[in-house]
Amino acid sequence: MQRRAIWIYPLALLFIFTALHALRAQDQPIEVKVHWDQVVRVSKTAPSIMVGSGPGVWRGSAAHDQIFRSIKELGADEVRFAGGGYVYPHYGVAELAPPTATTTSWDFSKLDPVTEDVMNAVKGHPLVLNFTTIPAWMFKQTEPVHYPEDPAKICWDCARGKELRDPTYREVADYFARVVSWHVKGGFTDELGKWHQSGHHYKIDYWEVFNEPDLEHGFDPPTYTRLYDAVVEAIHKVSPETKFVGISDSYAGGHPDFFLYFLNPRHHKPGIPLDMISYHFYAVPGADESPEVQPVTYFYQADRFLEIVGYIEAIRKMYSPKTGTMVNEVGTMLPEDWEQTKPDYVFKPIRPSYWNLSAATFAYVYAGLAARGIDAVNESGTPSAPGTWPTIALHDWQTGQPNARFWALKLIHDNFRPGDKIVNAESSSGVVMTQGYVTSSGERKLLIVNKRDHEFTLTLPEAQGGKLEVVDQTTGSNPPASSKIEGQSIKLGGLGVAVVTLPK
């Protein structure tokens, strides 16, 4: 016991010293410097949103109108609509049963309303469309998949299967070609030669080939690449102007083989386009981490992800430099989300500060991806609710009111767009990130992210008379607060995301 006390005493002193040092650091103003003549790159990054198909966007839900109103007002390019099917098969799979000699099961009655509402909300802006799920009957199954009779019932087992029953992949390719034809050609001819009329003549800017195929079906890179080629070839015959997004990887750091294989043109059929690739990022803390520790974890994981992006970019530039990149699911989670598939799952209320931590993480990742030349960054996602990843929600699942995550996205979207010059900026403390921009209209702006749940004072000598817009824990679920900067410093609340527009 005495020996243990000898060790504990200096450790306690070290802890106290560290804590006092941190407190003193909080009292010291953080100096921000911007080198306006040092252009890092011209941004080509579109800040955007990911929309799925769940109860919140079904017509008749209390949240429906507000969610789509906010999406329309956001006005983002490259919105990603990942149609349901993974957990709500009736809302994402258009042919739930295989055709027989006399019948087919084609049914778009649940898919169409959500798709129509998305199309109306993003009208005039490029859209990435992805009906994510391959019908389960196309896979070899030891037991058939039984879809729930109630379309609103979650089915975690309805997207299983790894080996396709048609080794040529023609069955899958023809299915998705018909889905696209339904949307762009006014209808399609089914397997029995019958015409199905839709009346739709949408423009599909991008078609993303599956969602997280490494996770949902465990496809290896060669299998996915052959499937991609088959689907793209079939869709191109129906919609020649559509471009394509490939890979849609769930965990970029764990699957370098996907990028090495897919981006090599030698692994594709001649003439198959490699327009875009996509992958995702979610920061997730350990189950035993307290709210005080979680900010360190989230931003550490964000830094690691940005390092991985640099590696992927090197692969892309080496094999297929004309291919673009979308990181079209960016978010955070709490460990409780991983319990939702269990029968005894009970939703735990989410603390209000979490939404600001998540918003700050997104803003930080967006800044890093913009500096690396990524084409689109989509915040994930809506709709989400208890039982379907509630901690990635952008809207209140009962009212549709946007939360801090959405408002941070809108703050970024309204201030920073492709064509802006990103300039070198720095702060005197690593707990505050700052990135400078000269917009296409000539305005000088700063994006600032507070990585800690403490208020800091920032010195900005150039900012007097400028405008400050902030999303923090005082704004809650309201739009960003806006104020005129009176002096040469600002206060940024814990986990705050701010945009400073300097006076002309």
Layout of helices and strands:
Blueprint: H1 2-27, E1 30-42, E2 46-51, H2 64-74, E3 79-83, H3 111-121, E4 127-131, H4 170-184, E5 187-189, E6 195-197, E7 206-208, H5 213-216, H6 221-238, E8 243-249, H7 256-262, E9 276-283, H8 294-319, E10 324-332, H9 352-371, E11 376-382, H10 404-415, E12 421-427, E13 432-438, E14 444-450, E15 456-459, E16 467-471, E17 481-484, E18 489-492, E19 497-501
Parallel strand pairs: 1-15, 2-3, 2-11, 3-4, 4-7, 7-8, 8-9, 9-10, 10-11
Antiparallel strand pairs: 1-12, 5-6, 12-13, 13-14, 14-19, 15-18, 16-17, 16-19
Helix pairs in contact: 2-3, 4-6, 6-7, 8-9, 9-10
Word description of this protein:
The protein has helices at about 1-25, 65-75, 110-120, 170-185, 215, 220-240, 255-260, 295-320, 350-370, 405-415, and strands at about 30-40, 45-50, 80-85, 125-130, 185-190, 195, 205-210, 245-250, 275-285, 325-330, 375-380, 420-425, 430-440, 445-450, 455-460, 465-470, 480-485, 490, 495-500. It is of the alpha/beta class and about 500 residues long. The chain folds into two domains: about 25-40 and about 420-500, Immunoglobulin-like; about 45-415, Glycosidases (TIM Barrel, Alpha-Beta Barrel), CATH 3.20.20.80. Helix 2 (about 65-75) runs parallel beside helix 3 (about 110-120) and helix 6 (about 220-240) packs across helix 7 (about 255-260).
